[in-house]
Write a structure and sequence with these properties.
globular, alpha/beta, 9 helices, single chain
Amino acid sequence: MTVLVVTGTGTEVGKTVVTAALAAAARAAGRSVAVLKPAQTGVAPGEPGDVAEVRRLAGDAVTGEELARFPEPLAPGTAAARAGLAPVRPPEIAKAAARLAESHDLVLVEGAGGLLVRLDEEGATLADAAHLLAAPVLVVAQAGLGTLNTTALTAEALRARGLHCEGVVIGSWPAAPDLAMRCNLADLPEVAGAPLLGAVPEGAGSLPPEGFRTAAPAWLAPELSGTWDAAGFTATHR
């Protein structure tokens, strides 16, 4: 796996912190890492975006690249049109990711919102970029009630497009999970048809960067350069 596309079941599910954890775990395993953000929305020129946050948490050794930035916090296609700017399109994303893959062991492509959020006026999505790259897709999901439906829909959309779902990572796992959250540990991999590969603690993005980097491998499964054990974690929360 050279390129991994990171998408979410929606907005505010923890994609950026999960991407930072993936980068930190890979770096701890001795791999060189690049993070590509195709479209950053809702951030003014000069302000730090998601790439800056990933590098703050995972370390400056992580290469970061942003292809386009649009000021309003909207879907990239809508934000580009309202700003009168050219949208970012799947071939551009694939070309940039392939270029970074030539000099890095792992390239993480972090999407905006969910898998099928529109990038341009023609309805292109992150899924189209993943198809061009023939890259697996990691789904970041919420922990609680409602996540089974959005995760199942995302996984179904991936399968319909011939894309491989690498697995599911819970983007924010609370210290005191409720019944639905605990049950979802067993149900998420079933509805996704893919393994549960991690659970990032709630508030992880607020940790000091050094502490974040040290802890990150414990939040992710070995498939993602970590040490997290899905079976053990699930059994603990029954």
